[in-house]
Amino acid sequence: MFYRKYQTYCDRLVQDTPFLTSTGRLSEQQVDKIILQLNRFYPQILTNKEAEKFRNPKTSVRVRLSDLLTHLQRKGERDCQEFYRALYINAQHLYGNLPSRKAMSPMFFLACFSVAAGLAFLIYYCSPVCRQQVLNRLGQCWAPSRCQRHSNPRVLRGARRVIGFSPIIIGKHVSHYLLAYLEKGFKEP
After folding, report:
1. Most C-beta atoms within 10 A of its C-beta, which of 33, 48, 66, 160?
2. What is the DSSP annotation of 45-103?
3. CA gap 25, 30 in Å, rounded
4. CB–CB of 99/3 below 8 Å?
5. Over the stretch 83-103, which tens digit does the pLDDT of each residue have?
6. Could you report the per-residue pLDDT of 26-38, keeping only the tens digit for each?
7. Can the peptide bond before residue 128 be classed as cis, meaning omega within 30 degrees of 0?
8. What H or E segment, with its residue span, contains residue 172?
9. How are the residues of the chain apportioned to helix, strand and coil, as percentages rounded to the nearest 5?
């Protein structure tokens, strides 16, 4: 399944609900603490009547938690976000194992891999003079025209196509280094 870069808290709650409601994940005390936090602390997410309903000892913990999560999803993004904050405070061990949090790890790996691959291509396809300039100026604004004067244009054109797709996954702070090769376009011989 493909995960968007920025999932909303409601989307995450839909994804995490089966995990949270499975037997033995959250104790009755933890569920009660989360409900009380959503009821008593600012911003107040649950009214007193809603909190009493979700803390009813006659209903099983699983059913109460499932009803709470469905209720929060209906109320909106802010309420789902506050649930995650309450979950982090009251069940930190469980918060770290949520499926929505684990789905973010592959994106981090791909971003790091893209940076490493982009820099490897950059260093490999530049001449020794350009390679030293790139390494010296990595933190500064770097002019791609200097590297193009010292490099083989045919090899550089092929490198542009590969390096040009690397910043799709990573942030803006790295992408301008990798996109420097694309400045003159793909039509260069």
Report:
1. 160
2. -S-HHHHHHHT-TTS-HHHHHHHHHHHHHHH-HHHHHHHHHHHHHH-HHHHTT-HHHHT
3. 10
4. no
5. 999 999 999 999 989 998 876
6. 999 999 999 999 9
7. no
8. helix 172-178
9. 70, 0, 30
User: Which residues have C-beta within 8 Å of that of residue 136, sequence separation ≥ 6?
Assistant: none
Q: What angle do CA 63, 69, 70 make, to 5 degrees?
A: 90
For residue 143, pLDDT beyond 50:
no
CA-closest candidate to residue 147, choices 121, 169, 167: 121
Q: 154: pLDDT confidence band, cut at 50, 70 and 90?
A: very low
> Exposed/middle/buried for 82, CB within 10 Å: 0-12, 13-18, 19+?
buried
Q: Which two tokens stand for residue 181?
A: 């090769």
**139 DSSP 8-state letter:** T
At a CB cut-off of 8 Å and minimum separation 6, what does 31 contact?
A: 61, 64, 65, 68
Comparing CA positions, the residue from 86, 95, 78 lying closest to residue 20 is 95
Q: What is the dihedral of CA 109, 115, 119, 125, to 10 degrees?
A: 90
Write out 84-99 in H/E/C secondary structure: HHHHHHHCHHHHCCCH
5-19, 40-54, 110-124, 160-174: least confident range:
160-174
